[in-house]
Amino acid sequence: MSVKITADPAEHGFDAGRLARVDRRFDRYVDEGKLPGYLAVVTRHGEVVHVGHGGLRDVEAALPVAPDTRWRIYSMTKPVTSVAAMMLFERGEFELTDPISRWLPEFAAPRVYVKGSSAAPGTVAATEPIRVWHLLTHTAGLTYGFHHAHAVDEIYRRNGYEWGFPAGLDLAGTVEAYASMPLVHQPGAEWNYSVATDVLGRLVEVVSGQRLDEFFAEHIFRPLGMADTGFWTDSDQLAALYSPEPGTGRLLRNEAMGAAASRPPAVLSGGGGLVSTALDYHRFTQMLLRRGELDGVRLLSPRTVDLMTVNHLPGNADLEAFGRPLFAETSYLGVGFGLGFSVTLDPVAAKSLAPAGEYAWGGAASTAFWVDPANEVTAMFFTQLLPSSTYPLRPQFRTLTYQALR
Question: Which Pfam families match (predicted)?
């Protein structure tokens, strides 16, 4: 099944002529050879008012993007894992302030980097345990090897954690490896985008007694009717992955990373492992917009969704003030972070048409989504260009959407 327009844009406050600018802008990216292809979806009041797509899901085979194309959503997996964790929170399985070492004893005595090189790091004991809410907010002190911004990032890379995982490990072994490496900062002291959601996925496994894929399927995907979402796919509708050639920007097929989505993974990555479709992720975003419920199926209480989608950074700080500077195609000004989502705090500071309260996230291959409760708008953008910092696709999609809303 594929995502389809279900209502006239004008009946839901959108100017269809101005909304067509979305397609024109991204068609131009395709024509200029900057994107292989794309799919953009906009909804309001639960109705799909725009579906635009263009280009190819597989350039070499000349296969076009279609509304039912499968996409590697990478870090758009993180909100799914965050929902899974909060479902367990609602059952009383843990408190958000609980130390994760209760279930993951490898984190009982974390060390924090303070000086030195990656080969000889100087560390001190953590003054605060890593707590569940630290994982949900990326304030645990963990990191990513692909940041190339800190000595600990290099330690991750040297141990085989840059854009993947070393051979021979499952999720449990991977999380144990993360626990053996130093933290970038004291838990709760800063925001640093990281493997925290992979650790959260392992926490879901231990607390629930189910593998992460089994928990997702039983408690999220089947209840929401997300039949085409999982940690891999053998569908011939899977889009190929591309990266720009250094120097020229020419699209090169990234088979080394792209092939991973076509086979069962050794590591079930709650931080970036899912493959999905626009229709499936649309159902997920509609559940969020409706504060935890869709078509009579309730995953979370409205109070829980409200808690997840407000800023949890201390002092209501934005990411510019509390976060570490990392590569991004968007500004951190005026944007905070909740339990699994970025949250717009101040549209003026963010220089964005998005209203306060909009929450969002994206994936490494330039995918993105947002939910705007104030205007009852959701939007999703899919392509397969890695890394996401190559072009300002996300802010442009946001502007192009909101300029069409009356």
Answer: Beta-lactamase
Which tokens go with 78? Answer: 């993180």
Tell me, what amino acid is at 83? V
Q: What confidence score (pLDDT) does residue 128 get?
A: 97
- What is the pTM assigned to this prediction? 0.97
| CA separation for the pair 134, 105 (Å, rounded) | 16
Closest among 365, 370, 371 to 389, alpha carbons compared? 365
* The two three-digit tokens of residue 282, written as one number: 């649309």
CB-count exposure of residue 27 (10 Å: 0-12, 13-18, 19+): middle
Q: Is 109 exposed, middle or buried (0-12, 13-18, 19+ CB in 10 A)?
A: exposed
The full set of domains in the chain, from first to last, is 9-83+210-402 (3.40.710.10), 96-208 (1.20.58.710)
Interhelix angle 78-90/196-208, rounded to 10 degrees, is 40
Provide the pLDDT confidence category of residue 384 given band limits of 50, 70 and 90: very high
Q: Report how far apart, in Å, the C-alpha atoms of 321 and of each of 134, 189, 332, 392 are.
A: 17, 12, 8, 22
**Residues 261-287: tens digit of each pLDDT:** 999 999 999 999 999 999 999 999 999
pLDDT at residue 398 is higher than 60: yes
Confidence of residue 1 (pLDDT cuts 50, 70, 90): confident
Confidence check: pLDDT of 46 > 70? yes
Cis peptide upstream of residue 387 (ω within 30 degrees of 0): yes
| H or E element, residue 334 | none
**Are 83 and 220 a contacting pair, CB within 8 Å?**
yes
Read off the tokens for 192.
């640093």
298 pLDDT above the threshold of 90: yes
Residue with tokens 């790091």, as numbered in its chain? 121
Residue with tokens 């997840």: 308
